[in-house]
Each structure stands twice: as C-alpha cells, then as structure tokens.
Design brief:
The complex is a heterodimer of chains A (482) and B (507). Chain A has 21 helices and two strands. With 482 residues, chain A is mostly helical. In chain A, helix 5 runs antiparallel to helix 6 and helix 7 runs antiparallel to helix 9. In chain B, helix 7 packs antiparallel against helix 8. In chain B, 62% of the residues are buried. Classes of the chains: A mainly alpha (482), B mainly alpha (507).
C-alpha cells in the first residue's frame, strides 16, 4: 500500500478523523458552546466535498482507479454520489440542529454517529469487494441502530431500534450467506475477479444463483422494497424526526451504489436472473407503497410508505442493465434524497417545542400561517407525485423509459397507474395546507439558517428539474463504460 | 418575417406571466390592490405583446412561425422548441384575451389571498400559452401537466363547499389520462430518438403501435376535452370553481384537448385515427345528444353550462374525425377541410361563449350567492342591461345565426353530411336541444315575474362588468358575422394537416 492509494481514500480518512475529533472536542465543551460541534461537522462536510471534487486521480481515458488490492474504487459515479451525500447531510444537520435544541437532545453523539454513518455510506459507495461492501453496510447499520434509539426519554425509539436491529441483523446474515456462496463458487472476494470467474462458470451455475438470491435479499432490505419493507414504517415513526431525516436519505444513496456495484460490476452476467427478481420487487413496492400510504394519518408513516414506492421506481431503472437505466436510477436516488430531506425538514419546522408535528392535520392551514413554507412543501409534494416541472417528474419518466427499454411495457403502465394513485396522498397534504383553516394560529419561527437551507432545498427541487440537463448527463456518463 | 423580436415572442408570452406571477405573489402580499393592479398590468402587457401573433401571422404557409429552438436536455435530445401555426395561433390569442378578462372580472369577487389568486391565473396563462406553442414532446407534456397545479389550487382554495372533492377529482382524472400519453411520448422517443413533434409527424409506425399510441393520446385528450364517458369531472369542477376558474377551464383548458387531437393524434397516428374514427364519432354523437338532454335537466346554472360545454365540444371531435369517412366516401380531402375548420372555429367560438356564460353566472352569484335556477326569475326587470347580454350569450350558445356559435356548428354539420346522413342528423339535434336548454334557462332566470325579494333588490351591472361582457359580446358577434380572419389563419394549416393524414404511415 502506497501513499497514492491512501490519497484515493482521502475523503474517507478525513471524515473518519473528523468524527473522532468531534468526539474528543465535545469532552471539553460546556453546554452553551456546543454550537461549535455543529460548525465542525459542517466544516467536515465542506472539506470532504472539496477533497472529493479534486478528482485528480482521473486522467484521460481512465474511468476508475482502485486501491487496497482492488477493494476500493474511485470513479465518477462514486464521487457524484458522495458529493450529494455531503450536500444532503449538510441540509440534515441544519434541520436537525433546530430539532435537537427544541427537544433537549443537542449532544455531540448525534454528530459523531451520523458522521460514522456517512463514512459507511462513502465506503459502500466505493466498495469493490465483498469485504468492503459488508464493512460499509455494517458501519451504516450499527450507527443507525444507535441513532434510532437516540431519544432516551422516548419509549418508541428503543422499540423501533430493536425491531430494526433484529430485522437488520437477519438481512446482514442473509447477505453474508449469499456472499459466502458466491465466494465458494468463484473463489474470490473482489467484484472484478468474481465477474471474471462468472464468465468462466457460465450464468447457470446453481450455487451462484443461490448466492445471488441471498444477495438480492440483502440489497432489497437496504432499499426497503417489498417484501423486505416491514421495518421502514415502524422505524420512520419511532425514530426522532432528525434521525428519520437521516435514514430516509443517506443510506438510499449507498444502497443504489451497492446495487450497481454488486449486481452489475460483480454479477452482471447473471443479469437475466436478477432482472426477474427486481421486477417482482419493483412492482410490489410500487403497489404496496402507494396503496398503504393512502391509509396513513401520520405523516412519518405516510412518507415511509412513499419511500417504499419510490424505491420501487429506483429498481425500475436497474432493470435493463444499461448506462441509461443506471443513470436514471442514480438520478432518482439523488433526487429522492433531496425531496425526502425537504419533506422531513418541514415536519421538523412545524414541531412545536417538545411536540413532534407527526399528524397530517398539523399541516392544516399552513398557507395562512406562512405562505412561503407552504409553497415549499407544496413543491416537494408535487415533486414526489411526479408532476412536472418539479424534479421528481424527470426522475420518474427516466426510470419508466428504462423499464420500457427492458421491454417491460406492462410494468411501466402499472407503475404510472399507481403513481397516479400515489398522487392522491400527496395532494391530501396540499389540501390540508391550502384548503383548510388553521387550527393553530401560532406564527412559525425558524432560525435563519434553517429557513435558508429549506429555501435552497426547495430551489433545488425545482431547479434540478428545469435545468436538469447537466445532472442527468453526469449521471448517465458515469456509466459510459458499460 | 422573422424579426429580432419575433424570435423571442413566444418565450416572452410564456415567461412574462410566469415571472409576473412571482412578482405578484411577492409584491402583493398583504396588499390586494397592488396585486390586482400588477396582475392587470402584466396580463395587459402580455396581450399587447402578443398581438403580432395576429398581425404578423403569415397566412400563406403551414410551416411553423415565430419559432424558437435551442437545446435543453441534450443527453436526450430534448429541446426548448416553440412555434405556432394556424391551429395554435388563434388559441394563444384566445388565451391572451381571457388572461386580461379574468383579472378584471375577479376584481371584486375575490377577497381572500388576492395575490395568490392573481398569481395562479398569471401562471396558468403562461403555462397554457406554453402548451399551445411547444413543439417538443417533453416540453409540451411539462406545460400540459404543470398547468394542473394552479388550477388545482384555484378550485381548492377559492371554490365552493364541495371544492376539495371536485379539485382532487379534477386533478387525478387529468393526471391519469396524461400519464398514458407520457408512455406514448416515451415510446415515440425510443422509436425516433428525438422529441421533436414535427419529426414524429413524419415517423413511420406499424399499425399496432399506432393503435396503442392513439389510445394513449385518447386517454389524455378525451379527459381534457372532455368526451363522454370521462366527462364527469367537468361538472363538478365547474360548479365548485370560482368564476375565474370556470372561465379559464371552459374557455381555454378544454381546447387543449381538441388541440391535442390536432397536434398529436391525427398527424402522428393517422392510420389508427382512420381505423378508430367510429369510436370517436360515436362518443361525440353521444355527447351531443345525450349530454344535451342531461343539460336540460339541470337545476344549477353552472352545471347546465358545464354540460352544454361537453355537448359543444362533441362538435369539435366530430368535426375532426369525420374527415376520414369523407375522404373514404369522396376520395377528396377538400370536403373534409370544412369539418376540421369547423372544429377549430367551434373551439374559438365556444371559448368566447362559455367564458361569457360563466361570467354571466358569476355576475348573478356575486349578488345573490346562489347558482340555483329556482332562486331567480324576472331578472330582466331589475337588471335590463344584464338581461340583454345574457340573452345574447344564451342565444349564441344555442347556435343562433349571426353569432359565432352558429358558424362552427354549421360547418361541422354541413361536412358530416358528406360522411353520413345520420351523423349530420344526430348532430343537428343540437340545434333543438341547445335551443331548448338555453332558452328555457332564459325563460326561468331572465324573464317572467320578479321571483323574490332578492331579485327585486338586484343592482344592474356596473361599468367594469359591462366592459367585460360587452367585449365578449362584440367578439361573439364579430366572429359570427365575419369569421373570415379566423378561417384565413386556419386554411393553409388545415389543408396541410389533411394532406398529411390521408397518407398511410404504416411501415
């Protein structure tokens, strides 16, 4: 291992170091001066972004560089996803600070744990061997288990954390089991070597296919697609909103990267097998997610089911196994992370001191109380429903085209029909905000940075739609080597 | 022809109202007078700027004019591509006209969140102009869908008691219809590698593909226009919407369905349109006759006008689709031209008439706060000027010669004679049914003895209302007596369309 290889992983090392620094600095800070932690964490993200964007490892004709015996890979897909992880986490920190202060939970553990989550996300994005995939995945999972139980006073948090832990461990077990079969069949841990070995073994090796099934289960659990979605509503509801904010966005970015690397780079020759599995899961997620969301009265649960349906759409993009399809999915997860952050950000803003605004009814009459924030929420909801010119529409048509490319017209049609049904519950939020009279006339106060972050988030949701050309191009070109 | 200004004209017409809407929201917060004034200035300026669309319009070519083309999302070859021909230019002018009118007509009746109301209408104006001028498939779809957002809010915020039901029904109905079109558009993109609508017109397609595409387009446009049996959202939306919302809905948004048939269904899938014309024609005839009877039975003035709109839009679809049987019967496209021109004239004319009728109901509603026919009677005694306009508009609605309502219907009936006697016969029934429900409405609301105390105390229309209704009356009479300017705009484009659709595209 030489210095150049270390340098490739510089962003990861930086985040790791800062997570430790923050943990230490907190020991010497008094209660009032804890704001410094927040500043440090934001600074971490800014510099991580700068380090990542330097990208001088890429020279002409080189699309990716590996380090640590091929276990770690840097490429433009990874860099884009990482940068959006930083942006998302930056928004999350800004929203979460307000929440944590309000709920007397403003402690450094939140920042350390979430930076470790970020580190896991980054490792998973860059993972190029089975070991690294598992490492990244578990780093995310373990940090998030702790975060879900972050509110010690609440009984729901630890309960949700237990559920998540039990189910999550099982999923990890499945994944490991699948990995061991793949290792057994191919004799290697690196995804590139695995792909080469599969080329020799052929696509009908029974051990490989069994391994693939378990791997797909593990990936599906991370995405939270039906039938591995059970944990999502309970965890979203039980966790403090600041944590829900985190788990609904960051890990999805990593899950996409993992799906791409594992299924395409590693098991690309088994495409015909995993395509069928993803098809079924995509269909079920879109149906179940949208139908179940209609019945919710709790906005956290509603958004949880909406996540399930959105992840179904992400799977649509993976189906054809083409550069366009992966680009579409990648664009979709990025967009989804931004939308979900904004939606939960709004939930945080409406939470009065000590009481979470969990019910849909809490949005009643928001347009009377604050037309500006109501407009942002409306933009987010229309975007999630896939109404142009919001960014959610662009993401949706691309994955639908991907499904049609794979020859699955029926799946595309079913998906759009259920997307229309899904529009109903997003419209209901708008109905509460615009068509109903407020029950609570209290003015909405949010700190300046909170308002600015939410505005920026809203602008991104319109702007990345109308000016979507460059981001879409970046996403699709990331897979140009396919 | 293409001066410097003309290269941007359509963009200005789209973006001036949209950016103006933002200005109205910001500047008009807590200051309703400011919001109204600014909205009037912006819509007025847009109208004036849009006049070259009429005066500088070249009636000798079917090619797109005032075009603007620049790359937008280059990875997918999506362009920001605008242009108008004889079909879209009149509809854009209609939109510009009503853009000003709704602002004036809502001057007093809207008290709540005035800035948002005015902004919503400006936004809609810009987006609707976008729909009519977009020549890129995805751009069209974006305008087509985005338009729903302000209308959804307008009905939901300023609407009547059942507004939530009506507006969600409106949104979901239209949304469901248009997603099928989206699949069709994506299919066309996969086939052609481009989103250029004009290129799609030339794209050869197998008959089966055309049939599916036709059904996709039909799902979107039949809901929008609306055709029987997917019309049920319209009466609800109309009844609950505030006056301005009803006016825009009836005068412009319904026309987008008809425009969609002209721009997409007919030229992109001509063989499927020819093969399935019986479907559209029978649905149109059902709309004309059956919905005519339904209108007769209404108790609510707005509902009556809504149903009458559906019946009148039946003429549009009939006029467009009889072209195929005329061509089959005569082997000549010139006879079919009358039907298509009639459909376009009917769209413009119905825009004026239905807008006028909804404004008329709005005038009464502002005073009495009821739309039920039974609450009125003998209005002519206390509101003579109002009665004058109302009778004129309702006569125009029933297709009285000399009003624009007559021209379009007459042209369509005349051309459907060449297709099939029974088409013409059934369509002709509208002259009886339309007269029946319109005149019966006149009798019950306008004439007779003063019905109650409220009617007795009615104030006649003021100068602002007279201006709005008077302008519409002039427009209706003008196009009734001299439709030539409109027909001139259409002629070349209609011929071009017909030449195109009688040639098979099947590969």
């Amino acid at each position: 291992m030489n210095g150049a290889q270390m340098l490739l992983a510089a962003p990861e090392f930086w985040v790791l170091a800062m997570a430790c620094v923050i943990m230490l600095v907190d020991l010497f800070l008094s209660e009032e001066r804890r704001g410094i932690i927040h500043m440090l964490a934001m600074l971490t993200l800014v510099f991580a972004g700068i380090i990542t964007l330097r990208g001088d490892y890429l020279t002409a004709g080189v699309h990716s560089v590996t380090a640590f015996n091929g276990g770690f890979i840097r490429d433009s897909m990874g860099d884009v996803l990482k940068v959006f992880s930083f942006i998302t986490l930056g928004l999350i920190y800004t929203y979460a600070k307000f929440y944590l202060r309000n709920f007397n939970m403003f402690r450094a553990d939140f920042y350390t744990l979430s930076l470790f989550t970020l580190l896991g996300v980054m490792l998973l994005i860059s993972a190029n061997s089975l070991i690294m995939i598992y490492l990244g995945l578990e780093l995310i999972s373990l940090s998030v288990y702790a975060l879900v139980a972050f509110n010690r006073e609440s009984s729901r948090g630890p309960e949700a954390a237990m559920k998540y832990f039990v189910l999550g461990s099982m999923a990890s077990g499945m994944l490991l089991y699948g990995m061991s079969m793949i290792y057994g069949a191919t004799g290697s841990l690196g995804l590139v070597d695995i792909a080469a070995a599969i080329g020799v073994l052929g696509e009908h090796d029974i051990l490989l296919i069994f391994g693939l099934v378990f791997v797909v289960v593990g990936i599906a659990f991370k995405f939270g697609v039906v039938p591995f979605h059970m944990w999502i509503p309970d965890v979203y509801e039980g966790a403090p909103v600041a944590v829900t904010l985190l788990i609904s966005s960051l890990p999805k970015l990593a899950a996409f990267a993992m799906a791409f690397r594992f299924l395409q780079s590693g098991l690309g020759d088994l495409h015909m097998h995993w395509q069928g599995m993803l098809q079924v899961m995509a269909l079920l997620s879109i149906i179940v997610g949208n139908l179940a969301a209609i019945m919710q009265t709790n906005i956290k649960r509603m958004l949880a089911y909406s996540t399930i349906s959105h992840m179904g759409f992400v799977l649509l993009g993976l189906l054809p196994g083409t550069a366009f399809g992966f680009g579409a999915s990648m664009y979709y997860v990025i967009v989804y992370a931004l939308m979900s952050t904004a939606a939960f950000g709004m939930v945080i803003m409406l939470s009065a001191r000590g009481i979470e605004a969990e019910q849909l009814e809490d949005f009643k009459g928001l347009n009377q109380r604050n037309p500006f924030y109501a407009a942002i929420m409306a933009i987010v909801m229309f975007s999630m429903a896939g109404v142009p010119p919001m960014v959610g529409f662009f993401a949706k048509w691309m994955v639908i085209k991907a499904a049609m490319d794979a020859g699955l017209l029926w799946l595309a049609i079913t998906a759009v029909i259920f997307a229309v049904m899904g529009a109903f519950y997003y419209l209901r939020v708008i109905k509460y905000m615009y068509f109903d009279e407020p029950e609570n006339e209290a003015a909405i106060v949010a700190p300046v940075d909170f308002g600015a972050a939410l505005t920026l988030n809203g602008i991104m949701i319109i702007g990345l739609g109308i000016f979507s050309g460059s981001l879409i191009a970046i996403c699709i070109n990331s897979f140009a080597t396919l | 022809m293409n001066g410097i200004m003309n290269g941007f004209l359509l963009s200005i017409l789209i973006w001036l109202p949209i950016l103006g809407a933002i200005a109205v929201i910001v500047a008009g917060a807590q200051r309703p007078a400011m919001a109204k004034g600014l909205a009037l200035v912006i819509s007025g300026a847009t109208f004036v700027l849009g006049l070259p669309l009429f005066f500088a319009f070249d009636t000798t070519t079917a090619a797109m004019q005032f075009t603007e083309q620049r790359p937008w999302i280059e990875v997918f070859n999506i362009q920001y591509y605008l242009g108008v021909d004889g079909f879209s230019a009149p509809l854009i002018l209609l939109t510009l006209f009503f853009g000003v009118l709704v602002v004036i007509s809502s001057w007093r009746s809207i008290q709540k969140n005035v800035n948002q109301y005015m902004a919503a209408f400006l936004l809609m104006e810009g987006l609707m102009i976008g729909v009519f001028s977009a020549l890129d498939g995805l751009l069209f779809y974006i305008f087509f869908e985005a338009m729903l957002i302000p209308m959804f809010l307008v009905i939901g915020i300023w609407g009547g008691p059942r507004r939530v039901y009506a507006t969600i029904k409106f949104f979901l109905y239209t949304f469901l219809g248009s997603v099928f079109m989206l699949i069709g558009l994506i299919y066309l993109y996969i086939q052609s590698g481009s989103w250029d609508i004009l290129a799609w017109h030339e794209l050869p397609l197998s008959f089966v593909a055309q049939k599916w595409l036709f059904m996709g387009f039909l799902a979107a446009f039949a809901v929008k226009i609306p055709m029987f049996p997917v019309h049920t959202w319209l009466p609800d939306a109309h009844v609950e919407a505030p006056t301005g919302g009803s006016v825009i809905l009836a005068a412009i948004m319904l026309k987008i369905g008809g425009y969609g048939f002209i721009r997409f269904s007919l030229p992109i899938t001509p063989d499927a349109s020819a093969a399935l014309d019986w479907l559209v024609i029978s649905l149109s005839l059902i709309a004309i006759v059956y919905i005519g009877f339904v209108a007769l039975a209404q108790q609510d003035m707005k509902k009556l006008i809504a149903y009458s709109s559906i019946a009148h839009m039946g003429f549009v679809t009939l006029g467009l689709f009889v072209a195929f049987s005329i061509y089959r019967n005569t082997g000549d496209v010139s006879g079919a031209a009358l039907g298509v021109e009639g459909a376009m004239v009917q769209m413009v004319s119905h825009g004026f008439i239905s807008g006028a009728l909804f404004l008329m109901v709005g005038v009464l509603y502002d005073r009495v706060h009821s739309r039920m026919i039974k609450d009125y009677g003998g209005v002519a005694n206390t509101m003579p000027w109002f009665a004058f306009f109302a009778v004129l508009f309702l006569m125009a609605n029933s297709g009285l010669p000399g009003t624009s309502g007559f021209v379009g219907e007459f042209m369509v009936i005349l051309s459907s004679f060449q297709a099939n006697f029974w088409f013409a016969f059934l369509a002709g029934l509208t002259l009886i049914l339309g007269a029946a429900y319109s005149l019966w409405l006149v009798k019950r609301v306008i004439f007779g003895a003063v019905a109650n105390h409220e009617v007795e105390n009615l104030q006649d229309i003021n100068a602002r209302e007279a201006l709005v209704l008077g302008t519409l009356a002039v427009a209706i009479l003008f196009f009734g007596l001299w439709p030539q300017p409109l027909v001139d705009m259409l002629q070349v484009s209609v011929d071009h369309l017909l030449q195109h659709i009688v040639q098979s595209k099947v590969i």
